[in-house]
Write a structure and sequence with these properties.
mainly alpha
């Protein structure tokens, strides 16, 4: 048994497909395109979120550096103020000792 395959027989086969088959093929094509588009969109969104995460990390590091510098300034000011307070207290104690004598 020999099967002939010509362009017109393929065309006739496609035309002879039932409506349900055509709908199934159409739905399959639309679903496939939708899945592919969805994957690409999700990939784009993931990359955007990763990029934003990097920028947020850089901002956090900058804030941390600023906070450390501010803390160092506060520590230095605390030392200076503590020394000045202690000096005034010693002078006041010395002055009260002199007055009592």
């Amino acid at each position: 048994m020999e099967i002939e395959c010509t362009d017109s027989s393929i065309l006739n086969f496609r035309l002879e497909m039932s409506t349900g088959s055509k709908v199934a093929v159409g739905v399959s094509i639309v679903a496939t395109i939708s899945v592919i588009a969805g994957v690409h969109i999700q990939k784009h969104l993931d990359r955007k979120r990763l990029r934003e995460g990097v920028y947020k990390d850089i901002e956090r590091q900058d804030r941390k550096k600023q906070n450390i510098l501010e803390l160092e300034k506060q520590i230095e000011l605390t030392k200076i103020l503590t020394e000045e307070r202690d000096k005034r207290e010693r002078e006041a104690a010395l002055a009260s000792t002199i007055k009592q004598s």
